[in-house]
Amino acid sequence: MSDPNGHPLEHPIDHLLASPSPWLLGEGPHADLVLSTRIRLARNLQSVPFTHRAREEQLQGVLVSVSKAAKQSASFEGGAFLRMNEISAVERQILVERRLVSHELGDGSKPRGIVIADQERLSLMINEEDHLRLQAMTPGFQLAEAWARADAADDELDPALDFAFSDEIGYLTSCPTNAGTGLRASVLIHLPALVLLDEIQKVLKSIMSVGLNVRGLYGEHSEVMGNLFQISNQTTLGRSEHDSIESLERVTRQIIETEERARERMMRDARVQIEDKVWRAYGTLRFCRSIHAREVINLCSAVRLGAALGLTGLCPLNILNELLVITQPAHLQRRFGTELTPAERNVYRAQLVRERLAVGDGTGAGT
Amino acid sequence: MVCQVCGKNPATVHFTEIHDNKMSEIHVCDRCAEERGLQAASKKGKFDIADLLAGMVDGMTSTEEERVGSVQCPRCGLLYSAFKETGRLGCAECYTAFQFQLRPLLRRIHGDTRHRGKAPTRDGVGANRSRQIHRLHDELQRAVEREEFEHAASIRDEIKRLESELIETPANPEAKT
């Protein structure tokens, strides 16, 4: 939280780093396939031009009124408010790596901010592409729960803020692709068997043909790594929030089934090869001395598959998930305290991976 | 999803691009993708919503195009031609100022132009309820199409209940006094 002068009372970034993001907990329904569920709502204030057209002082006004409305709401009670231009570039990047802010918000050049509540399960980006981007995040596959949270927070913010809305078009957004509900519902799902069996293209094509979109781990423009796919609704006009969520729910259930069937087939036809791949990946992670972030993500994918298939002796899901984030550059930089060259980062990363896996498999300190 | 260029065939080619910090997403059918050379354009990183908008004025004379481009939002001053370049509107009022141009665009993006979701609570209980009734009517129609008659009956009952409440609670409570 900030004091009246905007100075942090305790460093909220340290507070965040103390516990993993909700999407890394490895909990909730279908947690072995679906890492997390997210609901995002885009809103704008009626009286102020959209962020990219607003003057600096107007954006300051938005930042103040929206953060105030959030602080007074029950949903954001006890939340932390961070101004992007008051934190360092590394700290901003930490927020990006934790999927709390977008790359756009992460540049720190405009009066932008974020309110983070309930251990990152609820957050509110201010002055991103739209004045408000409300985000609810849950571990596992829990669309109804995430929607209930976002919907309630939206209802609480609404009376205090005059949202731009028209009866015909709905919530008005900077980009017409978000107009209407302003809703983006998404699930982050792990589909290694479909990738290994070369069936993923067919599945992705059918996902897109029903009006859903597929992206990588870090949203728009990000590439797919570690067989992690983010599936979300594409259209926001002409369908209620309930309909959009229901359709994502239905399709995700089908994808889960398809992936599970692919896993069964794979284990029936090539058990030895799969187990070998899993354990080699585990071995590399467990004993590496220098490793790139992408390699961590890809090897974790194989180990996650092994854990989901019930191979014993591997580390639990939450540790594998956590590695996705704590091995990223800004998190490493923060943890090891100094400016690191890429080569040094690889060495520190390897050390961290070994330590975490040693904790995970119960052998204690890494070797 | 329908192709955003021809508006007829299903969209089978999907692009998400970033260029000069501008985001773009586009969904087109194979034929339009090929015809418009979108595959190649995408590789150069130059394809965005702006191109879709540019494509939509094809068939206009240059005078017409100029006239449409010079339509300006009275509140924020954004020119339609500027929106075409960036794909971003300037303020809430732009939706009214450019309504004739935006309607076909929204249809191409979303396949629809009418909002069917939630609304701000400031409109009062009555307005929200009437929207809810509207939504239930849509749902009822779908249930009937799917021959889910039991579900349809329960939706119909819910509509009746809400409609009776609507009569009891006028949209404008002050009208009572």
Polypeptide structure, described:
The complex is a heterodimer of chains A (367) and B (177). In chain A, 44% of the residues lie in helices and 15% in strands. With 367 residues, chain A is of the alpha+beta class. An eight-stranded antiparallel beta sheet of chain A has the order 2-3-4-5-1-8-10-9, covered by helices on one side. In chain A, helix 8 runs antiparallel to helix 9 and helix 9 (317-326) runs antiparallel to helix 11 (342-360). The longest helix of chain A is centred in the C-terminal third of the chain and has 47 residues, at 241-287. Chain B has nine helices and two strands; from the N terminus they run E-E-H-H-H-H-H-H-H-H-H. In chain B, helix 3 packs across helix 5 and helix 8 (124-145) packs antiparallel against helix 9. At the A-B interface, helix 4, strand 6, strand 7 and helix 6 of A face strand 1, strand 2 and helix 7 of B.
Cα-atom radius of gyration of chain A: 21 Å
The average pLDDT score of chain B comes to 73
Low-confidence stretches of chain B are 17-23, 37-47, 169-177
Shape of chain B: flat
**Share in helix of chain B:** 40-55%
**What global shape of chain A is seen?**
globular
Largest sheet of chain A: 8 strands, antiparallel
Measured by DSSP, the beta-strand proportion of chain A falls in: 5-15%
CA-to-CA gap between the ends of chain A?
Answer: 40 Å
> Which class best fits the helix and strand makeup of chain A?
alpha+beta
| SSE-based structural type of chain B | mainly alpha
Main sheet record of chain B:
2 strands, antiparallel
**Mean of pLDDT of chain A:** 90
What is the strand arrangement across the widest sheet of chain A? 2-3-4-5-1-8-10-9
Quote the distance from N terminus to C terminus of chain B.
50 Å
Largest interface: A-B, 51 and 43 residues
